[in-house]
Structure formats: structure tokens, C-alpha cells
Amino acid sequence: MEKLLEILKGIRPDVDFENEKSLINDGILDSFDVVSIISELDNEFDVQVRITELDPENFNSIEAIWNLVQELKAKK
Questions:
Q1: Is the pLDDT reported for residue 76 higher than 80?
Q2: How does DSSP assign 19-49, residue by residue?
């Protein structure tokens, strides 16, 4: 998860990803941020986020994003 935190901080260094639990619901991350995150997840973890996985719940916290990455890796 350390690499994920590094990626997220690279995209939005102003956000406290360790403690924030409503990144999407509170409007902290916008659609451009999510697109950047998805691109970085693909590059770093070799996972393809599909349209069906673009649920706000999958991007509300670092834990949710990490769980998504783990689920996608398990499907390979």
C-alpha cells in the first residue's frame, strides 16, 4: 500500500490520504484526479479498471482503492 500512497500523493500532494475516508463524496477528488489514479494503477500494478468499477465507493479512501487493486489483481 506504500506505493499506492506514493502515487496518490504524487497526484494530489495536498490531500491527507491516510486519514480521509470520503475522497469522492466530499468532492476532494474530481474526475480528472480519478482518471490520473486509474492510469497510474494500470502503470504500476498492471490492472485495468473497468467502467463497472468506477463506483465512488472504490475511490473514497486509500483502503478502498487498495482493495480494488487487490481484487483486480486476483482476477488476472
A1: no
A2: T-S-TTTTTSS-HHHHHHHHHHHHHHH----
